[in-house]
Amino acid sequence: MPDFFDAYFAQQIINGLSLGLVYALVAIGFTLIFGILNVVNFAHGEIYTVGAFAGLLLIVGAAPPLLAVVLFAMAVGAAAGVGLERLAFRPIRRFSDEASLKSRAMREATLLSSLAVSIVTRELMVHFFSGEMQVIPQAALLQEVIAVGPLTLTNGNLFIFGASVVMLGGLQFMLYRTRVGLSIRAVSNNVLGARHVGIDTNRTIVATFAIGSALGAAAGILVGLYNGNIFPYMGFAPGVKAFVAMVMGGLSSIPGAVISALLLGVSESVATDFISAGWKDMIAYGLLVVTLIFFPQGLFGHGRERV
Amino acid sequence: MALLEVRDVHVAMGAQEILRGISLEVPERAIVAVLGGNGVGKTTLMRAISGIYGIKSGEIRFDGREIGNAKSHEIVRLGLAQAPEGRQIFGTMTVRENLQLGGIAIPPGETAALLDKSLELFPVLKARLTQKAGSLSGGEQQMLCIARALMAKPKLLLLDEPSLGLAPKVVKLIFDLVKRIRDEGATILIVEQNAKAALKVADTAYVVEGGKIAVSGPAADLARDQRVIDAYLGGHAKGH
């Protein structure tokens, strides 16, 4: 097959990696929160959307440099994450021992409370911004073409690569080298042990929401700048893909989720070589079903550290 | 004044009252043992002191301060650390990380010196620093658990069943270390089912039955007390 690995194919891989990195940023938020509370945060997709809208408002209002836009989106995302924890998670958490923190009742209750917050947030955004696509001003877009041999990259590709790698690296540094990170891993590993060494579990949970949400919001604005438009429902698809990546990665393994997200992004992108673009979502669901049937622990979930 | 005073403490789990008016005192630089069978409320008492459980009534005073309903992370900061029942180490994290977490309540600048001190007391951990804590043997995990508690620079160290599931040789090693920790300036409250081992190192002891203190006194006297011998040391054992 001489012309199988042609420029178009390489191009699709590059696009797939960008997409996968975005899924990875979203998946990390899911994974961190699942690790610490054993619950799926259904409002995580809306954090992504909130990040994108916060970025757009700043661009329209002040036209600041790109980095400031991303940092602002992350700050708003972190604040939204903290608010979400207060609204949908904290009131249901009465005790902080492991049994009740990770109990089924907690899981089911927060599944619904986070879903409720997600619906309300989305509809509020529709109310204020309408359900239509909002166009990002031309000057802020990341669609400048950079030709590398036969490949066409955009500065958006490069920026997503750079920003994601920096954020993923920063996250690993934070989790392994700082007190906040050690606390997050400790609470994920053993809540009772964490309380005995003097960790404030509530504060650690809030920090986890803030960090996971900041990354999700960053993904939202990056995709907005890359695609050129944003809308209140934009969080749904990446939310589902990131959820699939988390499950494939073994629910609470960050490296697992990141690798699965990249795999997912590249498969989706390359698949358009073989199937029509309208069917590409089948890839994510297909991978999810295959994972659940053949690797119920996830591809990387076996005996790995949570978080 | 005693370093720790527990006065008429009641703790309930739902409708069931586990501690029904328990009182005890731990003088500075003493080793105090709390003995008793399974399910009499020993671990509940330890968790209430550490702030894991709230108390229904009564008072717990530590170092002159009322801590009856303080939060667990505040209590560790006051200088009261526990090596809890079941060890509760962070199994997927390294030994070094476990020890760092033990010192999370004290200023970062002091942890390096404390780590050296802990490792001097527990040299077996030194070779295992980069190993996952879950891969250690039971005795090593218990040592890690105590070393982790010492990283919080406690004035009062609580030990909940440190001998559980360990070989007699390891039990002796651990109790020798307990004495050494006291000799270096800490105060110790120890909960044990292994009454014989505990009475050997303790100054005073309390026997808990049904959520209350049944017998108390100097450890040497309790070791000769016929009721204690019958119930906890095996009827045939000589108490000295």
Task: Break the fold down into its secondary structure elements and pairings.
The complex is a heterodimer of chains A (about 300) and B (about 240).
Chain A: H1 7-37, H2 44-62, H3 66-89, H4 98-101, H5 104-129, E1 134-135, E2 145-148, E3 151-154, H6 155-177, H7 179-189, H8 191-196, H9 201-227, E4 229-230, H10 236-249, H11 254-271, H12 281-294
Antiparallel strand pairs in A: 1-4, 2-3
Chain B: E1 4-13, E2 16-26, E3 31-35, H1 42-49, E4 57-62, E5 65-66, H2 72-77, E6 80-83, H3 95-102, H4 111-121, H5 138-150, E7 156-160, H6 168-183, E8 187-192, H7 195-201, E9 204-209, E10 212-218, H8 219-224, H9 226-233
Helix pairs in contact in B: 3-5
How would you describe this structure to a colleague?
The complex is a heterodimer of chains A (307) and B (240). By secondary structure, chain A is mainly alpha-helical. Chain A has one domain (24-239). In chain A, 71% of the residues lie in helices and 4% in strands. In chain A, the strands form two sheets. Chain A has a two-stranded antiparallel sheet. In chain A, a hairpin with a 2-residue loop joins strand 2 (145-148) and strand 3 (151-154). In chain A, helix 1 (7-37) packs antiparallel against helix 11, helix 6 (155-177) crosses helix 7 and helix 10 crosses helix 11 (254-271). Chain A starts with 6 loop residues before the first helix and ends in a 13-residue tail after the last helix. By secondary structure, chain B is of the alpha/beta class. Chain B folds into two domains: 1-79 and 154-167 and 174-234, Rossmann fold; 86-151, no CATH class. Chain B is 35% helix and 26% strand. Chain B contains nine helices and ten strands. In chain B, the strands form two sheets. In chain B, strands 6-7-8-3-9-10 form a six-stranded mixed beta sheet, sandwiched between helices. A four-stranded antiparallel beta sheet of chain B has the order 2-1-4-5, covered by helices on one side. Chain B is globular and about 45 Å long. Residues 236-240 of chain B have low confidence and may be disordered. The chains are: A mainly alpha (307), B alpha/beta (240). Chain A binds chain B through residues 97, 179, 182-183, 185-186, 189-190, 192-201, 304-306, and chain B through 50, 52, 71-73, 75-77, 81-82, 84, 88-93, 97, 100-102, 104-105, 108, 148-149, 151-152.
